[in-house]
Amino acid sequence: QVQVVESGGGTVQAGGSLKLSCAASGATYCWYDMRWYRQAPGREREFVSGLDIGGVSEYADSVKGRFTMSQNIEKNILYLEMSSLKPEDTAMYYCNAAPYYCGTTIKGGGDYWGQGTQVTVSS
After folding, report:
1. Which of 2, 7, 30, 76 could form a disulfide with 26 if both were Cys (CB 3.0 to 4.6 A apart)?
2. Would you say 46 and 60 are in contact if contact means Cβ atoms under 8 Å apart?
3. How far apart are alpha carbons 86 and 121 in whole angstroms?
4. What is the distance between the alpha carbons of residues 101 and 117, in angstroms, rounded to a whole number?
5. β-sheet bridge partners, residue 34
6. DSSP string for residues in 62-118
7. Do β-strands 10-13 and 117-122 pair in parallel, antiparallel, or remain unpaired?
8. Is-contact 48 93, C-beta < 8 A?
9. Backbone dihedral region of 113: left (phi > 0), alpha (psi from -120 to 50 degrees) or beta?
């Protein structure tokens, strides 16, 4: 079993910044591919950004140049620094973690979601 916990959401004005955190933990696993998604009311969940265990990152076009990921590898924490926020960035932000067995590059199977953290950008 894997626990995924997001934090750092809040309300900011347009043009402001927020930093989200996602911590993944599981007794059997040591590494995770981790991704951020978001879901606005009435819309489908969409991919925001992701970082795999090889260090390869990916960003949605809508956030490139504004959002930046970083990580604490030892603690399996993925950060999402969001700047130049726009009202259209308002959404519940979810973290997804796909685990790997310790000492291997073998996936643990499946992926896990956190409960989400709300980001609201006022105009």
Report:
1. 2
2. yes
3. 6
4. 27
5. 51, 97
6. TTTTTEEEEEETTTTEEEEEE-S--GGG-EEEEEEEEEEETTS--B-SS-EE---EE
7. parallel
8. yes
9. beta
- Encoded tokens for 74: 């030892």
Measured CA to CA, the distance from residue 119 to residue 22 in angstroms comes to 14
Cα separation of 71 and 22, whole Å? Answer: 9
What distance in Å separates the CA atoms of residue 1 and residue 6, rounded to the nearest whole number? Answer: 17
Express each pLDDT in 89-101 by its tens digit.
999 999 999 999 9
Contact 64, 49 (CB under 8 A): no
Residue 120 and residue 16 in contact, taking contact as beta carbons nearer than 8 Å: no
The token pair at 120 is: 């609201």
Considering Cα of 76, then 31, then 79, then 89, what sign does the dihedral take?
Answer: negative
